[in-house]
Amino acid sequence: MSSAASHPAATPEGAHPFPHGHLTGIDGLQPWEIAFLLDEAEQWVALNRAATKHDDRLAGLTQINAFFENSTRTLLSFEIAGKRLGADVVNMHAAQSSVKKGETLLDTAITLNAMRPDIIVMRHGSSGAVQLIADKVDCPVLNAGDGWHEHPTQALLDALTIRRRKGAIAKQRVAICGDILHSRVARSNILALTALGAEVRVVAPPTLMPPAVERLGVTAFTDFDAGLDGCDVVMMLRLQTERMKSGLVPSAREYFALYGLTRERLEKAAPDALVMHPGPMNRGIEIASDIADDLDRSAITEQVEMGVAVRMACLDVLTRKGRGVEGWV
Ligand code: CP
Question: Less packed terminus of the chain by CB within 10 Å, N or C?
Fold first, then answer.
């Protein structure tokens, strides 16, 4: 995918704005479907900044957040999003569930389904696990991150942050930097940002660069300074040591020296380059604290704020069919 002109943001005449029963990934979404979700999220940014943050459209619906991996941002923002829309929100933490007694993922899904939820939000450590569940249950399923595969709402909230800060996504030069190999955030962002017409670069040590990554429509750099050159957005990624089988980086100190974002390094990017990080951050490993905390350059807390709005939009849109909303039935 290349130019903004070939990626219309508006839904083509006669097309449904979002014809999908689940959101398991950015893969398979049309550019206008991504833009539609971002447009829908804007109203929730405004509501979330109001004194009273409540809308009743999901009243009477049950939302189960089934998290088989740890989370702070995604779990809490899905919980807040559901509650602000009036849903009854229930969190299932795998560590306190019968998964610990050996129950399989499929049996867990059948059990959750029997409780007649109206939407399931799921995070799992295995790529494809969320699709497996989506194929088995009767309600919409939202992927809150599966293995190395996708984290679609993270990409949507990142796209919304860029669009609000930069005015547009098309033609922005975005560098996604760090542990690309293990990152579902990188994969979903590459798919979303290229679909919306951004010029995407990936920057990583050779050991953390996925093979043939250029096939996703990005340019790969192993030299951090060269990759940052002239970029409008610098998106840093967490070094995911928990997903590494062996030492793919020599040491945290050497990694920071070569691939850590410092104020000096940021000067290679455009003068008004926006710094992003999905969190959680390893300060002093992939990003220096003074950059992360510089509100003139860093959009990290804004990303978290946009996360609630994007997740409200996804919960609303995916439950429209079940709620009998006109045009969705
Ligand atoms: N960005 C992200 O997914 O953060 P959590 O793991 O805290 O949800």
Answer: C
List per-residue pLDDT tens for the chain, 329 residues long: 334 444 557 899 999 999 999 999 999 999 999 999 999 999 999 999 999 999 999 999 999 999 999 999 999 999 999 999 999 999 998 888 888 899 999 999 999 999 999 999 999 999 999 999 999 999 999 999 999 999 999 999 999 999 999 999 999 999 999 999 999 999 999 999 999 999 999 999 999 999 999 999 999 999 999 999 999 999 999 988 776 666 677 788 889 999 999 999 999 999 999 999 999 999 999 999 999 999 999 999 999 999 999 999 999 999 999 999 999 98
What separation in Å is there between the alpha carbon of 131 and the centre of ligand 1?
A: 19
Q: Which residues line ligand 1 at a C-beta cut-off of 6 Å? A: 71-74, 145, 154, 278-280
What distance in angstroms lies between residue 320's CA and the mean position of ligand 1's atoms? Answer: 26
CB 151 within 8 A of CB 158: no
Whole-prediction pTM: 0.95
Name residue, tokens 């790969």.
220
Backbone CA torsion sign across 253, 259, 260, 263: positive
